[in-house]
Specification:
The complex is a heterodimer of chains A (726) and B (283). With 726 residues, chain A is of the alpha+beta class. Chain B has 2 domains: 4-168, Uridine Diphospho-n-acetylenolpyruvylglucosamine Reductase, domain 3 (2-Layer Sandwich); 174-280, Enolase-like, domain 1 (2-Layer Sandwich). Helices cover 34% and strands 26% of the residues of chain B. The longest helix of chain B has 20 residues, at 261-280. The chains are: A alpha+beta (726), B alpha+beta (283).
Chain lengths: 726, 283
């Protein structure tokens, strides 16, 4: 265990990455960040900087009748759709381009950008903004799944409000259900979740060397380049994006920075001066994307021996007013819909709906946490119904190597769940405690199993991303690493240096790896989907091998490596059939709780986690990922309530949208098992999202066992527990 | 932009307050949040501001005979650290925000903010705290329950300053402060409860029961408390249901972004129930 190893720089200087890459090193960014020296986007200084603020929609769904503006003093600007240059488009080029840069004629959610007000003095910008009056004609808004499916107020998207609809099927569900002797059903719901990333959204767009250059707190500099070039109608190379130091972003800076970058670029294109847009925290919580709320209905048939013979799942996710990445989130939710279980006959119907809520987008797990919460609670409810211990019932259905998955492919992974279960039993004393707490009205313990596919779904890495990395021999025995994936608190700058230095037999500190600049680094894809270490890290490893061969050519020797899809993994995108992911991370969590009978508050008294992430690139970094991911997920499962009132989020401050402090949850006892993956660097698999997936159902099950009532919904608030006990 | 003043001493502060009615700002931990604007612009004060946090004459806390006197600019940390601070007040103060904020925030500020969810206020209601108000040439003292008249509203005169809070020190045998927050630390209250009680010759001699964040102000009913005076342990136990039913008429919370009315009421009554049991079982 590496959690308590204190490292000094002297201890690790000159340590070559030996065979065991997992041995922790001092994180390259630790000192600067802990010391407060790192400059984030709000700390940057520019000459002649202009400050921007959005004019936002105050209505969830309305026509804009008129916008009454005061006279703008010299040097102050009102930028809207009419400022997009000829050849450009009032659309943001994300996965889809339906999201508008500026609302034009109508508004579709509260907070939608109508215009950008900017100028040199913030107070004057604010005063101008306050004097603008937007005259609306209200339309009937639609917020809930029910509203969306009934097209309340008329369809927002297409003719039926369905952004995406998929059907997955294995075996023969219709013929299998009649053979069931028992049917169990449940509807499982998950809420919005706010990212509350380290620093708020922020971008500065500038005019440098006759070129629009953006400095951005971001996960995906090349996404910003693509969206800005699309909006302005210019070649990609005309836009430059430099990533600013970015703290934990959790998916919140995957696409949303495009929503800020595009209007800023329209402004800079017009005025040729630098413009900053740095959100205040309340603005950020109120007007940025959240995790997709989910409603998942599951119906399961069991035979006489309590084997599952058939399962039917209906999955709904709320995409909000624009599509963005919603179909891909839905794909992940349904592909993870059966969890870690082998179900012979299963059908999953998934739909993503449009509503007049703030568009939902990427958040650590990307749909999987919703799907996994539902299946884990459902398996728990079935076990309860048939009177079998949960661990036994789940174990009985564990998927094994070679079994068929929901996308009709073979499970390629060496599935080590039984051993992981044995390990967590030993760590947590789970089964003993289940018995002990059976008649205890205040204590409970929960157990969950998950897997999480690493990298883009299906053939996305090959068909869409086509990642490239470059390396170069520099002066003084150093090597330059050129990739577009970013450090965002997850330790990537350290991990990729370790991977490269291992092959080059260099000190990891001799690898030069700066924050990406789209004019310098190749596009190795976005920082998301648990792909940075597994996919890009493997490219780095292979590229370093190539550079090693050319090393003796001297300073300037270069190597490049391009992603190639391993031939054994086959995928058909049209039908979503085949190997959805080349490998999965696997996890088991146990959570133990105690209920306060007077306040219904839940105290978490123990948390254990066993993970299979292939091989850890750095044990300490991965301990950090486990602790952070599990605690963030426990917040999602317990206190992170995010409610809508007439289309606006009710919790808008850090006082009202609370995330866990170190007093809310105890230490996460974590163990990693070894299970190398052949296309991962040193055997590493995806890990960043996996560590989020397991805690919510374990927590909900623990509370369920404490109170003796089934739980179908997260967050499990004290208010909900009180209602359940009434 | 508004004018701001930095008086050199209390006398100067009272003069400025009398002349301009400036808003006194001590720690600023409530006011700077309430009037915040876009980062990098001035806060949205509409009245002139007088900084008072530096006034050393008021930055004290001391025991005077049977009372604890908290100076007008004493911080929450000073209150928490003083050995004579009653336990319910210490617990309440320590449940507020985080140490860095408590080092700046003042007890006076928490009172004058007059939020029904003000944690120290719930305890001060139960402790019969008195608020000393001074203006140029005169002073008066009001019980905190009279001083606070509604959410954000007090009887502080336009020309007055709070110069001290006096807390009578009683040796109460049984006391409890419970805060139910949105999380375990650095949280705002969903509701809070303070109970203080004592026996004399086997009968209840004093009792105070207060509830925070369940009405427009902290809730305390002296009338209902009077019904409990003189009860024996057995009588208290026997009368518990009727006490709870009495209190359910004065606890009238609302739904908001932190909790629900139903939860607040139920938990407030649960905490009262628990406290009555503690009192009845006290040996």
């Amino acid at each position: 265990m590496g959690s308590n190893i204190a490292l000094k720089e002297d201890d690790i200087k000159g340590v070559k990455m030996a065979a065991k890459i997992s041995i922790p090193v001092l994180r390259i960014d630790a000192r600067e960040k802990a010391g407060g020296w790192t400059h984030y986007i709000a700390d940057y200084e520019f000459d002649n900087l202009q400050h921007g603020r959005f004019l936002r929609s105050e209505r969830a769904r309305a026509k804009i009748i008129e916008i009454r503006k005061p006279d703008f003093p010299e040097g102050y600007y009102y930028i809207d759709a009419s400022d997009i240059p000829p050849g450009g488009k009032n659309n943001i080029q994300m996965i889809k381009d339906d999201w508008r840069v500026f609302a034009d004629g109508d508004v579709r959610y509260i907070g939608e950008t109508i215009a950008l007000i900017l100028g040199p003095e913030k107070q004057i910008v604010l005063d101008l903004l306050n004097q603008i009056e937007v005259v609306y004609e209200d339309l009937v808004p639609s917020f809930t799944f029910q509203d969306a499916l009934s097209c309340k107020g008329g369809a927002i998207h297409g003719t039926d409000n369905i952004f995406a609809e998929f059907l997955l099927n294995i075996g023969d569900v219709d013929n299998a259900f009649p053979g069931a002797v028992r049917v169990v059903e449940g509807v499982y719901e998950t809420g919005f979740q706010e990212h509350l990333y380290m620093e708020t959204q922020g971008i500065v767009a500038t005019w440098e060397d006759e070129k629009i250059t953006l400095y951005a707190s971001s996960q995906c500099p090349f996404y910003i380049r693509k969206s800005v070039a699309g909006t302005l109608g210019v070649p990609l190379g005309d836009i430059r994006v430099k990533q600013a130091a970015t703290g934990g972003a959790f998916g919140g800076k995957e696409h949303f920075p495009d929503v800020i970058a595009t209007p800023l670029a329209v402004a800079v294109n017009k005025i040729k001066k630098p413009v900053a847009m740095i959100f205040d925290r309340i603005e950020d919580i109120s007007f940025t994307c959240k995790r997709h709320p989910g409603r998942i209905s599951i119906k399961t048939g069991l035979d006489r021996d309590n084997n599952i013979v058939a399962m039917e799942i209906d999955t709904l996710v709320n995409g909000g007013a624009y599509e963005s990445s919603t179909p891909i989130v839905l794909q992940r939710a349904i592909i993870h819909g059966l969890g870690v279980y082998r179900i012979p006959n299963a059908r999953i119907h998934g739909r993503a709906v449009a509503t007049n809520t703030f568009p939902s987008d990427a958040y650590r797990g990307f749909g999987a946490p919703q799907g996994l919460f539902a299946i884990e609670m459902h398996m728990s409810h079935i076990a309860d119904e048939i009177g079998m211990p949960v661990s036994q019932f789940k174990r009985k259905h564990f998927i094994k190597t070679g079994d068929i998955t929901i996308t009709n492919a073979k499970m390629h992974d060496d599935v080590k769940l039984p051993g992981m279960l044995a390990k967590i039993e030993e760590m947590s004393d789970y089964s003993e405690k289940v018995k002990k707490y059976e008649d205890d009205p205040l204590r409970g313990i929960g157990l969950s199993f998950v897997n999480h596919g690493g990298g883009f779904t299906g053939n996305g890495e090959q068909a869409v991303i086509k990642g490239v990395v470059k390396m170069k021999r520099l002066e003084d025995g150093k090597a330059g690493l050129y990739v577009s994936v970013v450090e965002m608190g997850q330790g990537l700058q350290t991990a990729l240096r370790k991977i490269a230095s291992k092959e080059l037999e260099l000190d990891y500190l001799d690898i030069v790896y700066d924050n990406p600049d789209t004019d310098i680094v190749p596009d190795s894809g976005p920082t998301c989907a648990s792909r940075s270490t597994m996919v890009v890290g493997f490219l780095v490893q292979e590229c370093a091998k190539k550079l090693k061969i050319k090393w003796d050519e001297g300073v300037g020797a270069e190597a490049e490596h391009v992603y190639t899809h391993p031939e054994e993994f086959v995928w058909e995108q049209e039908t979503l059939q085949g190997d959805a992911y080349p490998s999965y991370g696997w996890g088991v969590n146990v959570v133990e709780v105690e209920l306060d009978p007077f306040t219904y508050e839940v105290k978490t008294t123990g948390v254990w986690a066993v993970w299979d992430v292939g091989v850890t690139i750095d044990e300490t970094i991965m301990q950090g990922q486990s602790s952070g991911g599990v605690i963030q997920a426990l917040g999602y499962a317990s206190i992170e309530k995010c409610e809508l009132k007439n289309g606006a989020f009710m919790q808008r401050t850090m006082a009202d949208y609370t995330i866990p402090t170190s007093l809310d949850f105890p230490e996460v006892h974590t163990v990693f098992i070894d299970n190398p993956y052949k296309y991962g660097p040193s055997g590493a698999k995806g890990a960043g999202e996996l560590v989020f997936d397991a805690a919510p159902p374990a927590y909900a099950e623990a509370v369920q066992n404490a109170i003796g009532k089934r739980i179908y919904e997260i967050p499990v608030t004290p208010e909900m527990i009180m209602e359940a006990l009434r | 932009m508004v004018d701001s003043y930095r008086p050199k001493d209390l006398k100067d502060a009272l003069r400025i307050r009398g002349e301009y009615g400036s808003t006194p700002l001590a720690g600023g931990t409530d006011l700077m949040v309430r009037y915040q604007s876009w980062a990098g612009t001035l806060p949205l004060f509409t009245n002139s501001v007088m900084f008072v946090g530096h006034l050393h004459e008021l930055k004290y806390i001391k025991k005077i005979e049977n009372s604890l006197e908290v100076g007008g600019t004493a911080t929450l940390s000073m209150v928490a650290d003083h050995p004579d601070t009653p336990r319910v007040l210490r617990d309440a103060v320590l449940s507020i925000a985080a140490p860095a904020l408590r080092n700046n925030a003042t007890l006076t500020g928490n009172i004058c903010n007059a939020s029904p969810a003000g944690d120290s206020v719930c305890a001060l209601y139960a402790l019969d705290a008195l608020i000393r108000l001074e203006k140029n040439g005169s002073s008066r003292e009001l019980p905190v329950v009279e001083f606070i008249t509604g959410p954000g509203r007090t009887l502080l005169g336009k020309d007055e300053l709070v110069t001290a809070i006096t807390i009578p020190l009683k040796n109460s045998s049984i006391d409890n402060f419970t805060k139910v927050g949105t999380r375990r630390a650095n949280a705002l209250s969903k509701l809070s409860f303070t109970g203080i009680a004592d026996y004399k010759n086997g009968r209840i001699d004093s009792i105070a029961l207060t509830f925070g964040a369940v009405g427009p102000t902290v809730v305390r009913s002296v009338e209902l408390e009077k019904k409990l005076l003189g009860l024996s342990r057995a009588e208290l136990k026997a009368g518990k249901e009727s006490i709870l039913s009495d209190y359910s008429t004065v606890i009238v919370p609302i739904d908001d972004q932190r909790s629900t009315a139903v939860y607040r009421k139920k938990v407030a009554l649960n905490l009262l129930d628990k406290f009555i049991n503690e009192v009845a079982d006290y040996e």
